[in-house]
Specification:
By secondary structure, the chain is mainly alpha-helical. The chain is 54% helix and 5% strand. It has helices spanning 14-18, 20-25, 39-43, 57-66, 79-89, 108-120, 122-139, 144-164, and strands spanning 51-53, 70-72, 92-94. The longest helix has 21 residues, at 144-164.
Length: 165
């Protein structure tokens, strides 16, 4: 089976996307969903122990908000910068040897090893919980993010009113 990008409008069945052999091998070991799912809803579930992510900004923010450790695998654009942020703040790990945008084929065993490493790293899990708590506080009604947004709106109002006058 070759590489295939799947999006929510794709009408191809999951067996065709993943291959019949993969479906048989993993039948009792997990769940494969081809339909559209709400990523944040999944990340908020208490059993989620980690997130393999391309590190788009929204994905990083959602993982941080829910305190979920990230295994960063950036592909293009700002994702390298975001992966570095994830690593530097202690929310996750970035395996730079995997390359950038499909530079090299990464074996499933490599991914599996890193997922196990990420999920068993107690320091990473603890830091994820701390970041999640900090993010929740920032988004509360009187949190720093809420205050910064209101200050920006007030500044914008005053600037525009002065320009109109």
């Amino acid at each position: 089976m070759g590489w295939r990008k799947v999006d929510k409008e794709d009408t191809v069945g999951i067996e065709e996307v993943l291959g019949e052999l993969f479906i048989k091998r993993t039948k009792d070991r997990g769940v494969a969903v081809k339909g559209w799912v709400e990523q944040e809803e999944i990340l908020s579930h208490p059993v989620i122990g980690g997130f393999v992510s391309h590190c788009g900004w929204n994905s990083v923010m959602e993982a941080a908000r829910h305190g979920v450790p990230v295994l960063a695998w950036p592909l293009h654009g700002d994702q390298k910068v975001n992966a570095e942020v994830v690593e530097k703040v202690g929310l996750g790990m970035w395996v730079r040897e995997w390359g950038w945008g499909g530079e090299r084929l990464v074996r499933g065993e490599e991914v599996g090893d890193k997922v196990r490493e990420m999920m068993s790293d107690e320091k990473l899990r603890r830091r994820g919980r701390e970041i999640g708590e900090e993010a929740r506080k920032a988004w509360e009604g009187s949190g720093s993010s809420q205050r910064a947004l209101m200050e920006a709106i007030d500044e914008f109002k005053h600037t525009n009113l002065a320009a109109i006058s």
